[in-house]
């Protein structure tokens, strides 16, 4: 039987009776085929039960984060959306940092030696050069596309024009790239 999100009037009367008989919430829920949470909501305030409207979609930010956004916006010229994005970015950064720290701790506990290496360096990933070349070819002379399929066709056509010697040269440039990154202490090599 598919249930709604509130108890019907007969179900409420049944719950009231079962409460007077000191039945457990689990037993009440089983008898009227509803969740314990639904029973809890009704029993916590039977008079107001079912009168409040749904507030809609769940919040993306916690109330504390919303207050932080409001406080930050009141002290800046940025929009609330921009400040919210910054807060979300900071939350993401802290999550990433915790993950990195826990990964390092795990590797150290297993006595795994880790090399110092710049994280996600585009200088050490030849495909980044291919993407740049492909992008400039697809959008040459400011070309714009009217549909996704038209864009896909253009990308496929330009991809097929890439010559194997170009890819070989990129791969052969790796020792030089690594040397440059080491010289720049992991910084951008240009």
From TrEMBL:
It is found in: Nucleus. GO terms for molecular function: DNA binding. InterPro entries: Homeodomain-like_sf, RNaseH_sf, Tc3_transposase_DNA-bd_dom, Tnp_Tc3-like_HTH, WH-like_DNA-bd_sf. Residues 3-52 form the Tc3 transposase DNA binding domain. It holds the Pfam family HTH_Tnp_Tc3_2_like. It comes from the Eukaryota. GO terms for cellular component: nucleus. Residues 64-101 form the Transposable element Tc3 transposase-like DNA-binding HTH domain. This is HTH_Tnp_Tc3_1 domain-containing protein.
């Amino acid at each position: 039987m598919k249930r709604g999100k509130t108890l019907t009037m007969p179900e409420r009367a049944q719950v009231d009776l079962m409460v007077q008989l000191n039945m457990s919430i689990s037993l009440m829920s089983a008898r009227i085929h509803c969740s314990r949470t639904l029973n809890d909501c009704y029993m916590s305030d039977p008079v107001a039960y079912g009168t409040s409207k749904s507030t809609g979609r769940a919040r993306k930010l916690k109330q504390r984060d919303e207050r932080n956004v409001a406080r930050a916006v009141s002290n800046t010229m940025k929009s609330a959306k921009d400040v919210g994005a910054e807060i979300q970015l900071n939350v993401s950064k802290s999550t990433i940092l915790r993950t990195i720290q826990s990964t390092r701790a795990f590797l150290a506990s297993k006595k795994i030696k880790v090399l110092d290496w710049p994280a996600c360096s585009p200088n050490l990933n030849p495909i980044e050069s291919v993407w740049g070349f492909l992008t400039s070819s697809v959008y040459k002379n400011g070309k714009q596309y009217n549909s996704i399929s038209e864009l896909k066709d253009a990308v496929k056509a330009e991809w097929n024009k890439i010559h194997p010697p170009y890819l070989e040269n990129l791969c052969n440039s790796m020792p030089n790239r690594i040397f440059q990154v080491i010289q720049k202490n992991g910084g951008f090599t240009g």
